[in-house]
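Example with several molecule types.
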Amino acid sequence: MSLWKRACLYSIRKKGKTITLLAFLLVMATMMLTCLSIQSATETANANIKKALLGYFTINAKHLESGIPEDAVSSILAINSLSGRYTLRSYSHANYYDADGKPLEINTEGAAQVPEGYENAGKIVANSNSQEDSYFTDGGFVLTGGSAVTAGSRNEVLIHEKFAQHNGLAVGDTMLLGNVSENAHTIPVTVAGIFTNTKEQDSIGIAPSYDLYDNIVFTDLSTASFLLYGDGTASSQYGDFYVNDPDDLDRIMTEVQRLPGMDWESCTLTRYDNDYQNAKESLEGLRNIVFIAIAVVSVICFLVLALFLTLRLRGRVHETGVYLAMGISKGSVLLQYLLEVILAAAIALLLSYGVSSAISNQIGSRLLSQVTTETYEAVDLTGNAESGGGPAGDLGLSEIIVAVSAKDYLTVWAFGMVLCTASTALAAYPVMKMKPKSILTQMS
Amino acid sequence: MNIMEIQNVQYAYDGKKKVLKGVNAQMEQGRMYAILGPSGCGKTTLLSLLGGLDSPTSGQILYQGEDIAKTGLADHRRSHVAFIFQSYNLIDYLTPIENVALTSKLPPLPILEQLGLTAEEAKRNVLKLSGGQQQRVAIARALASDAQVILADEPTGNLDEDTAAEITAILKDSAHKSGKCVVIVTHSNELAKEADVVFRLRKGDLQILDTSE
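Resulting structure tokens for the full complex:
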């Protein structure tokens, strides 16, 4: 009779023992699978937070005239793990004129004051990529027509929808930007796009007229440089560099500080990942709990299963002795016992999928919901220039479903089989190391 | 021809307490041997050594002239010998048919029927059979294994007089009609009387007794 048949017959005929083992293995598999499912959901939550709350660092040139050197930008972009997203920007002011040189009207409603000499002026935000500017990335500004300012743009501007309507400007029209201190110095620019703000400005009533959203104009760096200094050399005061993984920020910033040719006397380096760190801290708690739970469940499962099987095999010393007396090898007897456990484990693992799916969804969703609330509280979702530029209000946590994945299920299968093998070997060792005669003596 | 030979076998528990002190004996096919002796004299130990369940401290056990320690004890147990125990030692979750099938490639039912079990009894759980029926199953398992040597340890110890007589007859037939070498360890003089050769184990020494004794 083959060991397969012996194992099957034992499992079928010793129903009570098989069902007890099955129930025990089902509880273990369900616990393990539930923990792994919650862990996977936590990992997904962490990944979503990384995507939503981008980490970046900013280089600020203390003196605008020196700016951030172009070769420094190239060197920084060559560093591993940078996302490739970056923007160089500088701020200045300009008078606005139509193509014929007549002053354009700015909005003064809501302004704390209209400074002298700034009656037709606004804030110029020069940018290598307007779409990556925090005015846009924090969700406040959106492009309603035309195209963004990019590194290749020359003499192009983005103007506010209200400013455009008020002055009869449209995409493709020409206007002039004039130096606020030298009225004679102007530069013609083309309206490449029109934007609007989706959030009300917080500083209404306290901001000067040129800082009102309606009066802001985005342009390219060379235009701003030409406007200020009379030459087209693109000069930037700030550089924002985004990273793929906010956890890499420390390493990357250290590499940036070691770059040759950077004068850190005239530049500062600042990290922006507070929101990510706050959100991460909330998730870390759950991750640690789940990790500890997995470790504890693993150890307890192994010990309890080994104890359970030890007691079970102790009751089968007689049977072992008979098999050995009949010339059946120890290996074959051990494999039979292992197979009995594996048969029960296979059924338990199949059942655990359904049980764990229900449980992990209930428990996991509750835990994640709690963590999500903590995370949203920890993160400033109103969004601001220092919030990492992530889309406010959505960290991608609400869409996470705690479910049993194929990967987790396979992991539990593999773990279950290893656990069964190790526990059976441990439980059978005292019996298997005995001589057949010793076993039979013990029997009698 | 001797199928089994015991050559100057010594055995000591834990290397200290010597129970067999240079035992010699020869056993032939077609004969039934009984080993008598007081409790604790080493009868079961000697049977274990013959069956390859243990190894002697010194000396040799030969099967068909070959040292079983060299040919392999597990192989010896699997191919050459079959055990019958006082407590039957059947596997309790198997039927008589399945117990016999553990070692046999032959259909078990005819063997069981030959030993007096009905087809219905042969399919019951072994624990639902009487002691005599269980011992018949144990004998059927030994006979079905096709082993040439049957080693029986107090095979009638748990049985009533009539059943013991029946079992003795079956063992005797196994030797005389099936040509097996049957070695029985027993306290029973009644059973020993049926043996062709009776050994007495005393103070570690094995002596042949007159069967009329």
